[in-house]
Write a structure and sequence with these properties.
alpha+beta; four-stranded mixed beta sheet; 4 helices; 4 strands; about 50% helix
């Protein structure tokens, strides 16, 4: 009889279990699945942010390159040098001081989808700021060289010409 009692005592605790381990395991599995979903969403968001940062940086670098090319062109023009690598495409240097040009509005009106998605605007402002211009502030054609050549270069560029997703504008003052 002692052997029978021993077997009954060993089996009794197993009958009292109601599957609590199964419930805890299911809850843990749901929590881990939720953590995985949140981690996937966060990594997707970080990937989009990195792509936007890359596109913006690329647009800024393209604008910097165009500004550098314009500066090289103006330096060659003022110092009468000839470097074929410094030709910024179509060249139009505005000589009028009081033309109402506003770099911010110019950049805003230049659209990413327009044909002017990579544009350069150059203005000669040396006579305007040094007092060497006439009362017409550059509206008349003045002869003679500018003793203080100073130029305003405004550049607008996008990250890629085919399908732009980011743009950048640079406004700089250049003294050759």
């Amino acid at each position: 009889m002692s052997k029978l009692m021993l077997k009954t005592e060993l089996r009794a605790p197993k009958r009292r279990q109601r599957g609590a381990v199964l419930y805890i395991a299911l809850i843990m599995l749901v929590l881990i699945a939720l953590l995985g979903i949140v981690a996937m969403q966060v990594s997707g968001l970080q990937e989009k942010m990195a792509a936007n940062y890359r596109n913006t940086n690329l647009a800024f670098q393209n604008a910097e390159n165009r500004a550098s090319t314009a500066e090289c062109f103006l330096d060659n023009l003022v110092n009468r040098r000839s470097t074929a690598a410094c030709v910024p495409g179509t060249v139009n240097i505005e000589e009028i001081c009081d033309s109402g040009f506003d770099a911010t509005n110019w950049a805003r009106t230049t659209s990413m989808s327009s044909s002017a998605a990579a544009s350069t605007n150059m203005r000669s402002i040396g006579k305007c700021i040094s007092g060497q211009s006439s009362l017409g502030m550059g509206r008349t054609a003045e002869r003679g060289g500018d003793p203080n050549p100073v130029y305003q270069i405004t550049v607008y560029a996008t990250d890629t010409p085919s399908s732009p997703s980011a743009d950048a504008a640079i406004d700089t003052i250049f003294m050759p």
